[in-house]
């Protein structure tokens, strides 16, 4: 990152997910989130080691674009995609996609 850049470098996966979000079914979007994974994730210019947090970061930044409208409008328009990505959860994400490291 050069000195005159104000924004930290973001992970390439955010742009990939953002580019397909409105063209994908909820199931396809959740599968792509799983496919791109979270290994060596970059969040706000730093490496993110917590995979569930990195997954959430990717999904939120890919689906919520306030240039497209208000937060409520973005959430309403992309609710099904968000719901599918959360339900899939990813490994250790607390959703249906992995086992929780904490057992009852």
List the main descriptive attributes of the protein structure presented here.
104 residues, mainly alpha, two-stranded antiparallel sheet, 49% helix, 6% strand, disordered C terminus
SSE layout and pairing:
Blueprint: H1 12-21, H2 26-36, E1 41-43, E2 46-48, H3 51-63, H4 71-77, H5 79-88
Antiparallel strand pairs: 1-2
Helix pairs in contact: 1-2, 1-3, 2-5, 3-5
Q: Give the assembly state of these chains.
A: single chain
- Number of DSSP helical runs: 5
Strand composition percent = 5-15%
Q: Report the principal-axis shape.
A: globular
Radius of gyration: 14 Å
Share in helix: 40-55%
Main beta sheet: strand number and arrangement? 2 strands, antiparallel
Strand order of the main beta sheet, please? 1-2
- Which class best fits the helix and strand makeup? mainly alpha
């Amino acid at each position: 990152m050069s000195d005159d850049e104000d924004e930290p470098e973001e992970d390439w996966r955010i742009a990939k997910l953002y580019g397909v979000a409105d063209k994908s079914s909820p199931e396809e979007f959740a599968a792509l989130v799983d496919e791109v994974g979270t290994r060596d994730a970059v969040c706000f210019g730093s490496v993110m080691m917590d995979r569930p947090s990195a997954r959430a970061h990717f999904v939120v930044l890919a689906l919520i674009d306030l240039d497209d409208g208000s937060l409520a409008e973005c959430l309403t328009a992309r609710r099904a995609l968000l719901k599918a990505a959360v339900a899939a959860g990813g490994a250790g994400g607390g959703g249906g996609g992995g086992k929780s490291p904490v057992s009852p």
